[in-house]
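Field reference: sequence -> structure
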Amino acid sequence: MKLLTRTILALFFRLLGLCLGAFSFIFLIIEFLDKMRRFSRMNVDAATIAFYFLNKLPEIISQVIPFGMLLATILTLGILSRNNELTAMRSCGISLHAISRPLLTAAFLLSILTFFSNELLLPVTARNIRDIEEQKLKRNEYGAVFRQHNIWFRDGPLFMRAMLFDPETMSLKGVTLWERDGSQPQKRYDADEGRLTKDGWQFSKVVIWEFRDGNQAVASQKPVLMVPLRLSLEDLKKVADYTSSMGYFELRRYARKLRQGGYDVTRYLADMHARAALPFSACVMVLLGMPFAVRSGRSVSTALGIGQSLAIGFIYFVLNALLISLGHNGILPPFVAAWSANFIFAMIGIWLMLTLEQ
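Structure field:
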C-alpha cells in the first residue's frame, strides 16, 4: 500500500506542478499586458517591473491552487483509469476511498501550507506591490495611505486620520484632523463621520480643540464642519482595498479594534473567515474532482479535464462570492457565509463518491 500511495502521489504532484505552472503563467501574462502600458508611460525600469511581478506571483499561485488541485485530481485518476491501473486496484479489493485517501491527505496538508503562506508571505508581497504602485505609478497623488490600521491623508497644513472608510455609505468613520502651522499643531478636530459633498468634506458631530502655549482646551462643538480636503472617493476606495491583503489574524485584530470603537465589523468578519475558508477549497476540489474523473473513465483527456475544472471552479467561485457578499450585508452570519460554499461542494463530492461505491 505504501508503494501504491507513493505512485499515486508522485503522479499527482507532477501534474499539480504542471497545472499550477500553466495557470500561473496565464495569469501573469494577463497581468503583464494589463500593467505594461502603465509601466511604459511612467518609464519604470526593468528591474522594478521584474520585482513587481515576482511579488505578484505568490498571490496568483494562492488563487489558482484550487483550480490546479481539481485539474490534477481529474488528470491523475483519468491517467490511472486509461492505463487500467484504477481497474486493477479496485479488482484487488482496494476501494475508491482508499485510493483517494492519499490525494485528500495531500490536499489537506497543502491547504494548511497555503493558509500560513498567505498569512506570512502575502502581506509582505502586497506591501511591496503597493510601494511600487504609489511611488512609480503615482496611484496616490495626494498621499492617502493605509498604515497601522488607519487611513492617513495630508493636504497642505491639514493632516487627517480615519479609522475606516465605509464603502456602503461612502463615508469616513472616526475622523481626526490636525491643522498645523509649520511643525506646531494649531487645532484638532474630532468628528464621528465625514461625507464628500460638492462643497468639500462635511464632518458631523465635531469637537474642536485649540492648542495655546502647549496647553489644549475644548474650544467649541459643531454639529457640522466643512473642510476643503482634496481627497476623492476613488482614492479612498483604493486605500480601503488594502484590507484585501490582510491575513486572517491581521483582519481579526483590525475588526477587534473597530468593534471597540463601536463600529460595524460584519464586512471584515466575513472577509476574515473567508481567509481561513479559501485555502481549504483545495480539499473540496479534490473531493469533487475524484468522482468526475472516475465517471469519465478512459474517456478523460486533458481538454476534458480542463473543461470540467473550469466549469466546476467557476460555479464554486461564483457561489462563494455570492455567499460572502451576503455575509458583508449581514444577511448571513460571517462564518456561515465564508464556509457555506466549501460545505455545499464537499457534500456534493461525498454524495457522488458514495454513489460510485454503490
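Note: The two ends are 23 Å apart (CA to CA).
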